[in-house]
Write a structure and sequence with these properties.
Layout (H helix, E strand, L loop, with lengths): L5 E2 L9 H10 L18 H18 L5 E6 L2 H13 L5 E6 L2 H13 L1 E7 L22 E5 L1 E2 L4 E2 L11 E4 L16 E5 L10 E6 H6 L10 H6 L9 H16 L2 H21 L6 E2 L10 E5 L3 H13 L2 E2 L10 E4 L6 H17 L1
Parallel strand pairs: 1-13, 3-4, 3-5, 5-8, 8-9
Antiparallel strand pairs: 2-10, 6-7, 9-10, 11-12, 12-14
Helix pairs in contact: 1-7, 2-7, 3-4, 8-10
The structure holds pyridoxal-5'-phosphate.
Length: 361
């Protein structure tokens, strides 16, 4: 039997086993075509169908109308950090940013390269332990947009409320919590996410943009750097990251099979509740690092009494088949990345390990 670890890698991360099996099964002969989808033309009937279905699934699962365009781009979320101001910030305009972590700050810096950024809130001085209360987010009313990072992968914090921005377009980096819970997605003018946590393999970036913001986009940009090019061509202006789009379609179908975002949310709540309960039961040994009200459902971060014990925890966990638990190099500690593909059974096994490790140490 194939050996499968309980995979806590922060990204690229675990993908649902059922999806991997479909990919394996279809790899050599895609649905009777005699070739792999990897070998198909992106202009073929087979691939166009995959592309259309992937887009339709995004609309369906996120509850979006036809005034939202689904784009499949490349370059990861980091490229979006730059493309957002590049497309949406007119000379003299200001982009507003909520600074809640390393990636949120990187997005802000990319805006500063191109124009002016307003820091609408920052928890940097508090070690990024929390996201703001909505009343703490402040920005001039004429900003081009407000940017948030809905889940802070490194710091283990997440927005559980959304700012009401009125006429100001709300933009979110959802790289690490996309498709994990219900949300009023119609509050957003632009959503983006690298696929490699909740949507499949790295190499494809999902962008969802509303028509009114798309229409405001700057003209005369290089073709491949303009959102409009992707929206006008169903992301088929040039060769797309075809395998990633195919894979994402399968993952979205799997999410649908879990009961859509409502079903996914239910499983994710059970997972994070069990993990946080175990951490909080022994605060002298396991110490959650994020403020309780800001705790992430996707990246659970904690410290042990000292670094040697943390190293021991990681190495003994590995022996028990739990991998990818080392906290980000900038913050240390332990991080459980429990994206959609992590099962409740995986968390139950983890909690058992945590109990026995605590008793033995
Ligand atoms: C929230 C968030 N934003 C952005 C990034 C950067 O993504 P990419 O490597 O796709 O550029 C990451 C990567 O982990 C992330 O977690």
């Amino acid at each position: 039997m194939t050996k499968r670890a309980i995979n806590f890698n922060p990204g690229p991360s675990a993908v649902p086993l059922d999806v991997l099996k479909i990919v394996q099964d279809e790899l050599l002969d895609y649905r009777g075509s005699g070739i792999s989808i990897l070998e198909s033309s992106h202009r073929s009937k087979e691939f166009e169908e995959v592309n259309d279905q992937a887009m339709a699934l995004v609309h369906e699962l996120f509850g979006l109308g036809s005034n939202y365009q689904v784009l499949f781009m490349t370059g990861g979320a980091s490229t979006q950090f730059g493309l957002i101001p590049f497309n949406l910030l007119e000379p003299g305009q200001i982009g507003a940013y909520v600074d809640t972590g390393e990636f949120a700050y990187k997005a802000l810096k990319e805006c500063q390269i191109q124009g002016k950024a307003h820091v609408a809130f920052s928890s940097k001085g508090e070690g990024y332990r929390r996201v703001p209360k909505m009343s703490e987010i402040k920005y001039p009313e004429d900003v081009a947009y407000l940017h948030i990072c809905s889940n802070n992968t490194i710091e283990g914090t997440q927005f559980h409320e959304l700012p009401d921005t009125g006429k100001v377009p709300l933009i979110a980096d959802m790289s690490s919590d996309i498709a994990s819970r219900r949300m009023d997605f119609t509050k957003f003018s632009l959503i983006y996410a690298g696929a490699q946590k909740n949507l499949g393999p790295s190499g494809v970036t999902l962008v969802i943009i509303r028509d009114d913001l798309l229409a405001k986009g700057k003209k005369g940009l290089p073709t491949m750097l303009s959102y409009k090019t992707y929206a006008d061509s169903k992301s088929l202006y040039n060769t797309p990251p075809a395998f990633g789009v195919y894979f994402m379609k399968l993952v979205l179908e799997w999410v649908k099979g879990q009961g859509g975002l409502a079903g996914m949310e239910k499983i994710n709540i059970a997972k994070k509740d069990l993990l946080y309960k175990t951490i909080d039961a022994h605060p002298d040994f396991y110490k959650g690092t994020a403020d309780k009200a800001s705790r992430s459902w996707m990246n659970v971060t904690m410290r042990l009494p000292d670094e040697d014990l943390e190293k021991k925890f990681i190495s003994e966990a590995k022996k028990s088949g739990l991998i990818g638990l080392k906290g980000h190099r900038s913050v240390g500690g332990i991080r459980f990345s429990i994206y959609n593909a992590m099962t409740l059974a995986g968390i139950e096994k983890t909690v058992e390990f945590m109990e026995s490790f605590r008793k033995g140490n």
